[in-house]
Amino acid sequence: MHEAEALIGGTWHTDPGGGTFTVADPATGEPIAHVTDGGAELTRRAVDAAAAAFPGWRALAADERAELMRRAAAELAARAESIGATMTSEQGKPLAESVAEVRSGADHLVWAAEETRRVYGQTVPGAGPDNRIWLLPEPVGVVAGITPWNFPVSMITRKLGPALAAGCTVVLKPAELTPLSAIAVGEAFTAAGLPAGVFNVVPTSRPADFAETVMADPRVRKVSFTGSTEVGRYLIRQSAQDVKRLSVELGGHAPVLVFPDADPEAAAAAVARSKFLNAGQACTSPNRIYVHRDVAARFTAALVKRAEAITPGLDMGPLIDARALAKVERHVEDALAAGAQAVTGGRRLDRPGTFYPPTVLTGVRDDMLICREETFGPIAPVLEFTGEDDVVARANATPYGLTAYVWTADLTRTLRVAEALEFGMVTVNGGPVAPPQAPFGGIKNSGYGREGGSLGVSDYLDYKYLSVGLGR
Known about the structure:
Elements: E1 2-4, E2 6-8, E3 11-13, E4 20-24, E5 31-36, H1 39-59, H2 62-78, H3 80-91, H4 95-115, E6 122-124, E7 131-139, E8 142-146, H5 154-166, E9 169-173, H6 179-191, E10 199-201, H7 207-216, E11 220-226, H8 229-238, E12 245-249, E13 254-258, H9 264-276, E14 286-292, H10 296-308, H11 322-337, E15 341-344, E16 359-362, E17 379-385, H12 388-396, E18 400-401, E19 403-407, H13 411-420, E20 425-428, E21 443-444, E22 447-448, H14 453-458, E23 461-469
Parallel strand pairs: 1-5, 8-9, 8-11, 9-10, 11-12, 13-14, 13-19, 14-17, 16-17, 19-20
Antiparallel strand pairs: 2-3, 4-5, 6-7, 7-23, 12-22, 15-16, 18-21
């Protein structure tokens, strides 16, 4: 057990009322830390600190901001093993996955640091010989970031990097299930010499207090949120009061389309990697796996082989908590009761913690609960199809629109299907989903705004129109 505090204005703070909350290890259920319960008072102090730091941070030359961000990235990478161990203890994913996530988070910071030099304005033709027009990029101001528990470091740096690159300061609320990773990121940034107040961390078990405080404060000009669609809708409604900028990355229900000309074994290997990564607890995780009838048997056999090679507790961690486990069980039980078959897995493990084995279901239909709700667990439902138009329509039959996966050797089909799919991101034949240089985000009920690449920085900028008369 250890104590953890809030980072505000470059120093560490406890709740004035002495409040704390407990963080537990999902693999054992045992408590591992007591954390300061920030609430409204510490949130206000953090906004004060971010607002005070904003003028100095935005005034720094791009190269100076970039150098500080590179130093922070290097410090984060140097601490990858220790922060990874912290992440594993509070989130449950295997240590190798945790360490890789910290290093990926550092890569996102490096990319954002380089984008600092490419925040360009624009010269526009004037209205006449005595007129000059420019567009001047300016940071939006203080940003509130709200991050989820499933990727507790990379979700921070994907928001923090572009915001800092644009010249904004940040107040972060990490998920109450995984605050220790965020606090460790704050320690790394402080050690790297980031100016006080530029990055603030407010852990709390009362997310509504944080949200209400930042949404009511006119100094907070943008909120970047990753989490549930329900909370995202709440923030969208609340943003109307001060007309705040929002980026919201919400739920997903990713389809996979495996066509008959694809290599079914290669497709199964890639689907297994993305499906069982982080025990299926990712918004980009495949949720509906549509396989052409001609290759369904080969694909399913290869997927089952991959699933059965995974050892829970070694290659795959537990689900985050008992509620997540109950949802997975409910989805599987509904599918089995409606006629699906569990080729492997299909029942929770008889051991401490919230472990559920990699599971492959066949005989799945679109009307089953698992095809209508996001499972967020290691369940791979396989559905068969025969026609291209039909499977695209089935894939699009969801209110979500984050990620879709396509497997085909036909270039014309690649373009035809990718254009027809109603998702913000489409990857073909195993292309990566979220490298630092690419904009990450969805459409429909999966939200709006982008993280990563040049578009990610643009979300933290306003463009001021400047028109000058030469007065001849």
